[in-house]
From TrEMBL:
It is an enzyme of class 3 (hydrolase). It catalyses: P(1),P(4)-bis(5'-adenosyl) tetraphosphate + H2O = 2 ADP + 2 H(+). It holds the Pfam family HD. The keyword Cytoplasm does not apply. CDD domains: HDc. GO terms for molecular function: bis(5'-nucleosyl)-tetraphosphatase (symmetrical) activity; metal ion binding; nucleotide binding. This is bis(5'-nucleosyl)-tetraphosphatase (symmetrical). Its EC number is 3.6.1.41. Residues 19-130 form the HD domain. Keywords: Hydrolase, Iron, Metal-binding, Nucleotide-binding. InterPro entries: Diverse_Catalytic_Enzymes, HD/PDEase_dom, HD_domain, YqeK.
Amino acid sequence: MFNLDEYKDKLIDNIGIKRFNHCLRVRDFALKLNKRLDNYKIETAAILHDCAKYNEKYYLDKYKNYCNFDKEILENKAVIHAFLGKIIAEKEYNINDEEILNAIKYHTTGRVNMTELEKIIFLADACEEKRNYQGVEEIRNLAFKDLDKAVLKTLDGNIKSLIDRGLIIFPLTILARNYLLKEKNG
Ligand SMILES: [Fe+2]
Ligand SMILES: [Fe+2]
């Protein structure tokens, strides 16, 4: 069982106090969104979702035997910390719950047929109380009413923003968005 007290210093040392506080806010928002899942899973995934951030090079080297990432992932800063985060949560923080690990892995890109835990962590990361971008309040409100609609709106916003900034859209994000759109329209 993950115990924050045991790992707090290590996590702060790894990601810094600012990012750690973001993780606490993600946890708080995710707990508010939670209706029926185990709070332990929510808290653990939220606290650890960015555990690989800022140390990608170090961890990629340390766990090179486990990191079979293709170039597309390695070169995508936003994606690599999430995919690598799954491995670091397992190896460095002793998490072995696949649902928690996948919520960490897909917190940036989303994926087709996300679990409720994945949706909650994805949204809490996008909407925690200090997030401040145009439309965030609308997504926040939507998240309490309909997780799928809120995830879809967030993915749409992310895709638009990536296009505006001339950045690569990771294919999983497009697949996740199309999947939700089809679901919504039956
Ligand atoms: Fe992240
Ligand atoms: Fe985050």
